Amino acid sequence: MSLFGRSLFSTELLSNEDLEFLFSTTRLFKSEFEKRKRIDHLVEGPDLHQKCVSLAFFEPSTRTRLSFQMAALRLGMKTTSLDNVAVSSISKGETLSDTVRNLAAMKPDILAVRSGENSDLEETLLDLSIPVINAGSGTSEHPTQALLDAFTIQEFRGKVQGERILIIGDVLHSRVANSNLILLSKLGAEVAYCAPEEFNPHRENWKATKKFSDIKDAMKWATVCICLRIQKERHQLHHSIGLSMAEYRERFRIGTAQLKDFAADGILLHPGPVIRGIEISSAALQDSRCKVLDQVTNGVFMRASLLSGILGLEVKKQ
Ligand code: NCD
């Protein structure tokens, strides 16, 4: 089954065929954009310029929201965006589920939704008759981030299979880590994590995952290192964390010293936003192995591929 007309809630639901389409189309879009500064001539579909992606962001976002928007624009499509709940009817008492039902009633071609933990909303999204893309849901999943991470790994390491991928930081609260564990394992990578006790993951699928307690050993092992943001906004919601930023920085920050233990051809990733100086030092962000901004570039083309697949656009392989 192709991606045509489908929703994307979890990386779990992506088949090998989907992944092949997404990776090859992302590669094609990226290289064509580098040559011609456009990709719209590569896609064809009825009334494409009339197609509209509705973005509903109930949690803050810079990269994900704007890269969905950029992806749609580059394809020649349009977007609408609800990104400031203070100026929406949610501030008047409407529930997120009702807001989403109303956005769907405007008949966009695709709806991309970011939200915090909300089981009512999740049920509503499953019931909508238009394709829905999960643009980050609570602590659960963030499939498009994992896709662009996997693409970036493939791009700089030449493959994902057999890569030793180390996830560092607030694994417990990270939807990015969950989606990455599923997708990168599916693609044949070995995933491990290094986190303070307070941030150890509880989910079942993490149980069999390798854990490092010492960052030095972890960095020596890894070929790819993915740092996570400390999800402060979720700590109050779940429970308070007895770990100070200073302690975190001392034990888990990636700086020049940690990069000395890291493979010379390894790559350092972070989904952003980076808390500079706490999760990664300014010097490490300047290191040639740091591919954080390449992830952002790839995010646009990966999301453009996903939109093309869901809309069933004909992609000309040139
Ligand atoms: C992540 C998110 O929102 O889950 N960022 C992103 O989408 N690029 C990670 C984070 O906020 O820490």
Structure, explained:
The chain is globular, with a radius of gyration of 19 Å. Helices cover about 40% and strands about 15% of the residues. The strands form three sheets. The chain has a five-stranded parallel β-sheet. By secondary structure, the chain is an alpha/beta fold.
Question: What's this, in brief?
Answer:
The chain is of the alpha/beta class. It is 42% helix and 15% strand. N-carbamoyl-L-aspartate (NCD) binds at residues 63-64, 136, 142, 145, 175-176, 229, 231, 271-272.
Rg from Cα: 19 Å
> What order do the SSEs take from the amino end to the carboxyl end, as H and E?
HEEHEHEHEHEHEEHEHHHEHHE
**Largest sheet, spatial ordering of strands:** 8-7-6-9-10
Number of DSSP helical runs: 12
Largest sheet: 5 strands, parallel
Tell me the structural class: alpha/beta
Alpha carbon gap, first and last residue: 24 Å
**What percent of the residues sit in helical stretches (DSSP H or I)?**
40-55%
What are the bound molecules? N-carbamoyl-L-aspartate
Query: Poorly predicted ranges (pLDDT <50, ≥5 residues)?
Result: none
The mean pLDDT is 94
Quickly list its features.
binds N-carbamoyl-L-aspartate; 318 residues; 5-stranded parallel beta sheet; alpha/beta; 12 helices; 4-stranded parallel beta sheet
Give the arrangement of secondary structure elements:
Elements: H1 16-36, E1 43-44, E2 52-57, H2 63-75, E3 78-82, H3 96-105, E4 110-115, H4 119-127, E5 132-137, H5 143-157, E6 164-168, H6 175-186, E7 190-194, E8 210-212, H7 215-221, E9 224-227, H8 232-238, H9 245-252, H10 256-260, E10 267-269, H11 282-286, H12 292-311, E11 314-315
Parallel strand pairs: 2-3, 2-4, 4-5, 6-7, 6-9, 7-8, 9-10
Antiparallel strand pairs: 1-11
Helix pairs in contact: 1-12, 2-12, 3-4, 5-6, 5-12
